[in-house]
Amino acid sequence: MKRKDRETTKKNAEKERQMRSALKRLNIQNEEKKLANCTKYLLKTSLSKNKTPYDRLISHNDYKMAAQNLQDGLSDEQSQALIATWKPKGKGRDALFRSLAEHFYCKFPIPSFLWSVFFFNKASRFTDRFFNNNICLVNLVKHLAAGGSLYKAVQQKQLPVPLTRKMCHDFLQSDKSTSFLRALRKVQIQAVGGDKKLLDQWMLHDVSSMSSYEDECFWFSFLAWLAKNPMLESSQVAPIIDYIKYTRRERPDFSMKGRSALALLRSIEDWHRELGVVNAGTHIYIPSGIKGGKYTTTSKGGIITHWEIREILTEKDLAAEGRAQSHCVYSYKHAVADGATSIWSLRASDERALTIEVRHQLKKIVQVRGRFNRLATSLENNVLLLW
């Protein structure tokens, strides 16, 4: 027994020695990791300390682009002098950019949301209208920062939007986290008695972006018409807008005066039938550069469905999509040709399920419709989320 006890004790002592040795090695490794992390941190902080606030600001592409737009119209010497005399306020990029913009142009304080107009990419000119509108807004903000009157700018059509003096006042009181365009549409919708639901819906459509003064006046009258027809289903708004855009190209004097919702919906049905028999052209569209997708789902009953999202790249295929789905997607041929929009078809086991509109300026899906303009099902929405 004594001999066995000695052997057991010896084995336990050896195990304990091995454990201590392993712990020692582990501690050394942990210390080496800590030292490496500490070195990286010190190197990173030392490099960041050498950066100026302006360098930190333009290290992000969006803010670099906005800072470049801020300096448009100034010589290199003027820009460098202003940056050199800038006394930054705040730590985050938003605060730094506002501080820089105010240093460049502000003689009088203006609402911080106005500076959002400088965040546009000059290299990505989806349309000349989009580019020119942004330049117009930039010049307007510079005018306001110099102490100019918004109401006078509206009267002189520096801002081509019909606004009353009260609407101008409400616009300048907008929340600092909003964008210029959303704040503008909000005061218009409030003026005609609309609500947030109408605002959210309106911002999804391309007609919500800036346009000519004549177009702005027309679409403001359409907003008033929508506010007076609150029982109109939200799913009907997009087809109505498509119909009006198409009709105004053919009849520039088209007006919303005296139009009932029922009569307008009947006209849209007739128009859809006309589009269904139209002879499509041979135009081939430039691919958007967005990738399509293929997905597979299995239902609780074990039914397997293969989904495919493919871009429509010819006018002929666009017309075929509209005929098969009994909606007006063919009327988007001009927007697709201009590169402002791309149209996609979602197929379920090679059967057409949904037609999808992707707005390039917004970089997102703005409209989804099935046959007869139906909305997407929950399963279809899940497939779109995968995309």
Low-confidence stretches: 123-131
Q: Return the structural class.
A: alpha+beta
Provide the residue-averaged pLDDT. Answer: 83
Q: Strands across the major sheet, in which order? A: 1-2-3-4-5
Sheet bearing the most strands, described?
A: 5 strands, antiparallel
Element order, helices and strands?
HHHHHHHHHHHHHEEHHEEEH
Report the sheet-strand fraction. Answer: 5-15%
In summary, what is this structure?
By secondary structure, the chain is an alpha+beta fold. The chain has helices at 2-50, 53-58, 61-70, 76-84, 93-105, 128-145, 150-155, 165-172, 180-191, 196-202, 213-228, 237-250, 261-276, 315-325, 333-338, 378-386, and strands at 293-298, 304-311, 341-348, 351-359, 364-369.
Would you give an account of this structure?
The protein has 387 residues and is an alpha+beta fold. It has helices at 2-50, 53-58, 61-70, 76-84, 93-105, 128-145, 150-155, 165-172, 180-191, 196-202, 213-228, 237-250, 261-276, 315-325, 333-338, 378-386; strands at residues 293-298, 304-311, 341-348, 351-359, 364-369. A five-stranded antiparallel beta sheet has the order 1-2-3-4-5, sandwiched between helices. The longest helix is centred in the first third of the chain and has 49 residues, at 2-50. The chain is flat, with a radius of gyration of 30 Å. The N and C termini lie far apart (73 Å).
Highlighted features:
alpha+beta
Secondary structure blueprint with pairings:
Blueprint lengths: L1 H49 L2 H6 L2 H10 L5 H9 L8 H13 L22 H18 L4 H6 L9 H8 L7 H12 L4 H7 L10 H16 L8 H14 L10 H16 L16 E6 L5 E8 L3 H11 L7 H6 L2 E8 L2 E9 L4 E6 L8 H9 L1
Helix pairs in contact: 3-5, 8-9, 9-10
